[in-house]
Every structure is written in C-alpha cells, then in structure tokens.
Amino acid sequence: MKKLVIGGVINAVISLAVGGGAAWGIMHFSHDSKKETKKATANEKKIDLKNSAFISMPEILVTLHDKDDKDRYMLVEIVLIADGKEKEKSDEINASQPLYQSIAVETLSSFSYEEMRNLHISEIKDLLLTKLKKGVAVRNLELPFEDILIKRVVYQ
After folding, report:
1. 21, 41, 55, 95: most buried by Cβ count inside 10 Å?
2. Residue 78 to residue 101: CA distance in whole angstroms
3. pLDDT at 62
4. Is the pTM above the cut of 0.85?
5. Rounded Cα–Cα distance for residues 80 and 89 (Å)
C-alpha cells in the first residue's frame, strides 16, 4: 500500500512539473509573438482606403514551366492602390502600366509552375510589391502607388 501512495505522489509531482512547464512555454512564446506582431504592424504604413484610388491593371499572362518542362500558364490581375486625392498619381500609374506589367512578368516567370503553386496569394502579393518597388527605384522614379491587391490568380 505504501508503494501505491508513494507512486501516486511521484506521479502527481511529475504531472504538475510537466503541465507547469508546458503552460510556461505557451505563455512565454505567445507573448513574444504578440510583441513581434505589434512591431510589424507599427512599421507598416497605414493606408486610408476611403481616400484611395484603385487602378486595375490589364490581366497579366505568364508562361511557367513545370517539372516535366511542359508549358503551364498563370493569369494574374493586379490592382494598384494610390492616394485618391492626388489625380496626377493616378495618371502616372496609367501611363506606367507597361513598366509595371513588365516587372510582374519578369518576376513571376522566374518561378517554376510547382514553386508558384506552392505560394500563397499573400506571398505572391508581397513578392510583386517588393519587385515593383525595386524596379521603380532602379529607374530613378517615384513609386506612385502605396500598395497592391491581387484580384485574381488562375493556373492552367
């Protein structure tokens, strides 16, 4: 009987230690991720969608090669978000659409079909926005839009 009581006490102590460690780990790591999320949100520029202009670009068709070296296709529709208060920015975006399309085609066609299919829409958006910013900066131009939206993606 003594062995049963001692075994029960040891089992209870071990359970408390494991449970307490797990609870501490969850609280510790979830607290750090909240800090990182707050930092990331604070660093992002807030966009006032009420005063924004949404400029749809023509559909972009990209040829992707799959693992068997067959041609596959990706259709992407992008919407550029600009400050709606500044009419000249909207005009500049419309005039520069071929440049933006060229950068998007160059960026997307560098991937294989499988690689592109494994990306989430948000990853494609971030990739395109980064490349558009770099492409415009290389040409010593000012970026006339603040963000982009991916309106549609179709794979074939």
Report:
1. 55
2. 9
3. 95
4. no
5. 11
Per-residue b or e along 39-75, where b marks 16 or more CB atoms closer than 10 Å to that residue's CB: eeeeeeeeeeeeebbebebeebebebeeeeeeebebe
Strands (E), the chain: 52-56, 60-65, 71-83, 147-155
3-state class (DSSP) for residue 106: helix
Mean pLDDT over each residue of the chain, to the nearest integer: 81
**Residue from 143, 106, 107, 99 nearest 125 by CA:** 107
Residue 29 token pair: 């790591």
The amino acid sitting at 58 is: P
Strands 71-83 and 52-56: antiparallel
Q: What is the pLDDT of residues 13-62, one digit of tens each?
A: 676 565 555 555 555 565 544 444 444 443 455 666 777 889 999 999 99
Confidence check: pLDDT of 11 > 50: yes
Residues in CB range of 99: below 8 A, 6 or more apart: 135, 136, 139
